[in-house]
Design brief:
- The protein is an alpha/beta fold.
- It has 11 helices and 14 strands.
- The strands form 2 sheets. A 9-stranded mixed β-sheet has the order 3-4-2-5-1-6-7-8-14, with helices on both faces. Strands 9-13-12-10-11 form a 5-stranded mixed β-sheet.
Length: 379
């Protein structure tokens, strides 16, 4: 079991032994506060992009629903006629090949799995690099007419100045013991939420959301909320994905009540398992660390039942299949595996207040929606 998996399970259980790590958390807290203050007073340089930047991130380790939120926002902005680009660190990719533009045929091993998913779902212009400044300049060199840049998971990257900042909070998961790493799973103190635009990711059947002092004055109608809506299962390797004669046809999707292998390499896999439970599948859970690099051999050990994965994991598994068919003809064992691989896509559904807040914030940076008359001022 990896250290990441061990820590994740300990945070979920709020294990007693985590409190022995409290001195490390205190040191970590001191370092991040000093670092943030250094950027605030100008001791460390920060970069101001020539167009507005919207940062979307979280203060917790593990998944919060940020990637589906970005996909939904990008699609909405595209429908409003706004020319939008995206930047990301490209976690899990090859930093030696960055900065890099993300294309529809980019490999997750080069640019990261989440950037591949975002581009495949939106077709938006995107660049990746640990240096967000280099990512921005690379993006604008190829797409000089962009009006807005969304920075994926750049909340703690203070070297990049931002005009709009949204923090995603998993309302069901909450903040655990409210301690910073490694005692808890907070990246920054909860005070970081004060004055920020917080989007609460809640369950679809939740009558209320996580309550904390940082947002106690906001009414439910004013809060920005979202939930993830599961879509229909999709065969991971569809009939349109023919490579060297490999095509899967006449396959029946798993039905409610069926026993399935749920394989997940995302930040908070329990949410994925719970979603499948809510769809009445009998779930055999197989959690892996976030951004895990699967192998076909590893997946082949899950026999007899259908295998369901997340959209993020599917991006990497498809790349594995393509590479395998390039190198050699797939064995009968792998062909049987392909016939059992399914994807559960999810869509972020945002509250009306999210769109209202977004429109107000875009007005402040002079970006017009389709139904508005002004244009962004030249910078």
């Amino acid at each position: 079991m990896s250290i990441e998996t061990t820590m994740t399970r300990a945070w979920q259980r709020q294990a007693i032994w985590l409190w022995f790590l409290l001195p490390i958390s205190w040191l970590y807290t001191l370092l991040i506060l000093l670092r943030r203050q250094a950027y605030k007073i100008g001791l460390f340089a920060s970069y101001r992009a020539p167009i507005p930047v919207m940062v979307i991130g979280n203060i917790t380790v593990g998944g919060s629903g940020k990637t589906p939120l970005i996909i939904t926002l990008v699609r909405h902005l595209q429908q409003q006629g706004i020319k939008i680009g995206i930047i990301s660190r490209g976690y899990g990719g090859d930093s030696s090949q960055m900065p890099a533009l993300v294309r529809s045929d980019s490999l997750p091993s080069v640019v990261g799995d989440e950037p591949c998913l975002i581009v495949n779902m939106t077709g938006a212009a995107m660049a990746v690099c640990p240096s967000r400044q280099r990512a921005v300049t690379t993006l604008l060199e190829s797409y000089p007419d962009l009006q807005l840049i969304i920075a994926d998971d750049g909340l703690q990257h203070y070297a990049l100045q931002r005009d709009i900042e949204w923090i995603v909070v998993d309302a069901a998961r909450g903040f655990g013991n409210k301690q910073l790493l490694p005692t808890g799973y907070l990246r920054e103190p909860m005070s970081r939420l004060q004055g920020a635009q917080v989007v609460y990711h809640q369950k679809t059947d939740a009558s209320s959301i996580h309550n904390d002092k940082s947002d106690s004055n906001a009414s439910l109608t004013e809060r920005l909320t979202m939930h993830l809506q599961p879509d229909d299962l999709e065969l991971l390797w569809s009939c349109n994905d023919q490579v060297d004669g490999l095509a899967i046809v006449n396959i029946v999707a798993p039905e409610r009540g069926n026993l399935v292998h749920a394989v997940s390499g995302i930040g908070y896999p329990q949410r994925f398992f719970d979603t499948l439970d809510s769809l009445d599948f009998e779930v055999i859970q197989h959690p892996y660390p976030d951004h895990y690099d699967f192998s076909l051999t590893e997946l082949s050990q899950y026999t007899e039942h259908p295998i369901i994965v997340t959209s993020k994991d599917a991006v990497k598994i498809r790349a594995l299949l393509v590479q395998a068919t390039i190198n050699q003809t797939l064995s009968d064992e792998y062909k049987e595996l392909v016939s059992r691989l399914w994807v559960l896509p999810v869509t972020a559904v945002l509250s009306d207040s999210c769109y209202e807040q977004l429109q107000q914030q875009l007005r402040t940076v002079k970006i017009a929606m389709n139904n508005e008359k002004f244009e962004r001022a030249n910078v």
